[in-house]
Amino acid sequence: MPIASPHPSHKTHDSDDSFFYAFSALRGVQAGRDYFVAMCPLKLIPKIFLFDEDEIPSDLRAQRVLNRARIPEMARYLVENPTEYVFSAITASVDGNVSFEPFGGDGTQIGRLRIPMTAKFIINDGQHRRAAVEEALKDRPEIGDETIAVVLFKDGGLKRSQQMFADLNKHAVRPTKSLGILYDLRDPLSHLARSLITSVSYFKGLTETEKTTISNRSIKLFTLSGIYQGTRALLNKPKAGRISPQEGDLAVSFWNEVGRLIPEWQMAQEKKVSAAELRRDFIHAHALALHALGLAGNSLIAAEPKKWKVSLKGISKIDWLRSNTKLWEGRAMIGGRVSKAHNNVLLTAVVIKKALALPLSPEEKRVENHFGRRGN
Prior knowledge:
The chain is of the alpha+beta class. The protein folds into two domains: about 10-170, no CATH class; about 175-375, no CATH class. The protein has 15 helices and twelve strands. The chain has helices spanning about 45-50, 70-80, 125-140, 160-170, 175-185, 190-200, 225-235, 245-260, 265-270, 275-280, 285-305, 310, 325-330, 340-355, 360-375, and strands at about 10-15, 20-30, 35-40, 90-95, 100, 110-115, 120-125, 145-155, 205-210, 220-225, 335, 335-340. The strands form three sheets. Strands 1, 2, 3, 4, 5, 6, 7 and 8 form an eight-stranded mixed sheet that branches. Strands 9-10 form a two-stranded parallel sheet. Helix 14 packs across helix 15. Mean pLDDT is about 85; it is low at about 1-10, about 10-15 and about 50-65.
C-alpha cells in the first residue's frame, strides 16, 4: 500500500524546520469534508506513493492486492503513445496536518496545499496506474515532467480508507467488449471489425455495437465483439497486430461467403425472420459460432488458399439447429444454453472442420477425445 516518502522535489522548509510537500491545488467539499485536487508531476508519483505491501499493517491495506500482470501492458500504453495517452486521476487519503492557503483571500478555492513529509498516503483508487507510471518512466524518463491529477482526502488515522475503496468501486462498471472495440482507434483489428459491420452485407444493420450480449427483444443478430473475435481467429492475429489491406479484403470476402452459405443469415438480412427467432433456434446465430467459423476458416485458407471458397460450401451441410441436442449438447451448449467457453468454441470448430474435411489441431483432438469419452 502506498505511503509517503521524503524526496527533495516539491518541498518547502518552514522556520520550525518541518518539511512539507507543496502543491498548487483546488479545494472542494464532499459530504461536508474538504478535499483537494493537485497536479502532480509523474516523476513524483512513485516517490510519494511507495508500494510495499509487506511493510504496511494489514489494517491500512485499503485496496486489493496489486495484480502485477496488468502493469506491463499499462506501461507499454504510456510508452508507445506519448502524444495521445490519457490517465485518469489517482485518488488517495492522507493522514497528517494538511493545510490549505488560498491565493488572494479566504474565499478563494485555488491555493497552495501543504502536506508534512511525515504524513502517510494511501491510494484508494489508482494503484495500478501508479505502478505503470513507475515502469514507463524507466523507458521514457522525459514524461516525468508531465502531470497527473491527484485527488486527496484528509483522513485522520486513515480510518475511512477501506470504506472509501469500497465506495469508489461499488458502482464502477467496466465498458463492454463491444464498446471498447467501437471506441478503440489504435487497434487495427478493432478498426477492421468496425468496417466489417458495413462492408459485409450480413452484418450491416444487424450488429450490436455497444453490448456484448443481446437481449431477446433486440433486432440485432451479431455483436461487434463476436465479429472481432471471429475475425481475429480467421486472420490468426495477436492483439494490436497489423492488418494488411489484403487481409482486410480476405475478411470481407470470407464473412460474405459464409453468409451466402447460411440461408437463415440471408433471411435475417431480408427481414424474413426475426433475429430473436434465429438466436432461439440456431447455433450459428451466436458469437460462439463466429469464433469457431473463424478458427476453421483460418485452417481452410491455409490449406487451400486458391480454392477455399469451393471447399467452404461444406458448412451448408451442418445441422445448426439447437434442437439437435445429440450434436450440440455438451459441445456448443451446456444444459441447453449456448456457451462461449474456450473448449466449447474448439468443440464447435471440430464440427465445422469435419464438414470441411480439415485435419484437427492437437488441442482440438484433445478436447474432442475428452468429449467423446465423456459421452460414452
